[in-house]
Amino acid sequence: MNISRTPVLAAAALALLAPLTACGSDAGAEDGKTLRLWHYEEKDGALGKAWAAAISEFKKTHPDVKVEFEQKTFDQIQQNASMILNSDKAPDVLEYNKGNATTGELGKQGLLTDLTPLVEKRGWDKKISESASLTARYDEKGEMGGEKWYGIPNYGEFVLAYYNDDLFKKYKVGKPTDFASFEAALAKFKKAGITPLANAGNDHPAEHWLYLLALSQADKKWVDDYQLYEGKVDFHGKEWTYAANKYKEWLDKGYFEKKDVGLKGTDMTEQFVARKRPIMVGGNWWFGGLTNDIKDFSWSTSPYPGSELTAGSGGNNWVIPTKAKNKKLAEDFIGITMSPKIQKLIGEGGNIPLAAKPDTIKNPKSRQLIDAFDQYQKNDGLALYPDWPVPGYYDTFVGSTQNLINGTSPKTVLDQLAAPYEKYIATRR
């Protein structure tokens, strides 16, 4: 956006800083009898329902404690967190976005409580895999993968394959088990006159495709070099070169539609829901909506068969501000969100609990989803997201993949991706 956002940010900041009045109480009283909690999940979503259940459970186990919950928007918290958490209006616990520029930045500024002793005491480091906890742990520079836990994620997210089972049966296409059979399925659908792959060029799905193709040629060291700056990344090396060339090949063969260049993610899901595309590769965050929207055909999920690595990470973090007045209560609440009861609820609702066993989930589609995520966790296969390493990189990725769809050469597109990355790396030296 090119317009000034200052008035909007100021209004949002004032709204966040305003005293809590909905409960008619003196918010922030230092009596150990009030838990102030913020999150931004919609109440009808899997996480919103889970957090509501966790609040109810907290009230049962802490009958003498008042819970003052406020639902904020993602943008309210994202844009004003450092100012809020550095004031006496800081809540005791809140949901906060993961990443170097968010949880990492506030941890570096000293605004978040170091939860490492709590994690070790409660054994959460044993329940959450190393790859899923990467975005909860930061170093002194505020960069992911450090030794200090500044947040607790209790759900996961990743990119996987969605299949229209009815169309696979109708056209006698075998379900892919590896990359060769995946490409064979694309070719067979195209031969039958069907564009196989849903896509959205004006949103994250197109960049996810490019990253997945690069990951198919990569190993964990390459991911750490790219995401954690542990080594030099060559944008004209085999990984990115293969990705851009394969992307162009699929465009030329008609596996993607070039006219999808201007579509958003919701347009991509509509292609799948409307039975126009038999295959969609996207985040598990689409799962709940698809469950509600698809009524007239059978569908399933599976790990994307092209790679043992996928775009994904642990979910957003529960964090405790340094200035929180009731940290012990906040710790107890986070503990409840990690309990088997709440973790199971997350799973049954179509999300991915980090501390629940798949065989405890009765919903078969949800269990299928969790099984796929667990495969990546066991193999340390969560490779974060392609736009994370550089501030503002998301817009670069969207523009570059759109250029690729519109016919710009793979080499030029890789040059476009390399420039801001290499410029940022130079500032870190």
From TrEMBL:
Note the Gene3D superfamilies from the entry: Periplasmic binding protein-like II (3.40.190.10)
Write down the InterPro entries for this protein, in alphabetical order: Bact_solute-bd_prot1 (IPR050490), SBP (IPR006059)
The keyword Calcium appears for this protein: no
The record ties this protein, via SUPFAM superfamilies, to: Periplasmic binding protein-like II (SSF53850)
Q: Which UniProt keywords apply?
A: Signal
What residue range is the signal peptide?
A: 1-24
**What is the protein name stated in its UniProt record?**
Extracellular solute-binding protein
Phylogenetic placement of the source organism = Bacteria, Bacillati, Actinomycetota, Actinomycetes, Kitasatosporales
